[in-house]
Amino acid sequence: MSVLIVDDHARFRARARRLLEAEGYDVIGEAGDGASGLAAAAALEPDVVLLDVHLPDGDGFELAGSFAAGVGPPIVVLTSSLEVEDVASLIPGSAARGFVPKDQLSGQALAAVLA
Asked: In angstroms, how far is the first alpha carbon of the chain from the final one?
């Protein structure tokens, strides 16, 4: 399964890439903001976009709709340093499939959201 990581923290992107690749995911790209992420998603056509809730150029909940509006849209999974309880009420109204806290990110946690 191919993954695009969209997060403004380079250290998190690198850690997420290593972790997901070690668990069998194909990380095909990274982006540091929403605009770059949307362009990368259009060019790379990932199966999944791991999208930070807080980006310098937009809110991840709103950006999820932009990712989902494309042709053959990817599944959007939100991530943040926030806890699930802090965002749980916002997920059903968004185009995201679910949420994984950054400190709990793993291939298994991602697979649980995708199932």
From this structure: 13
Considering only the C-alpha atoms of the chain, give the largest distance between any 2 of them, rounded to a whole number of Å. 34
Question: Are 49 and 76 within 8 A, CB to CB?
Answer: yes
CATH for 9-81 is: 3.40.50.2300
Closest CA to 80 of 98, 58, 109, 103: 103
Domains in the chain: boundaries: 9-81
CA distance 68 to 50: 13
- pLDDT tens-digit profile of 56-107? 998 999 999 999 887 779 999 999 998 888 888 888 888 999 999 999 999 9
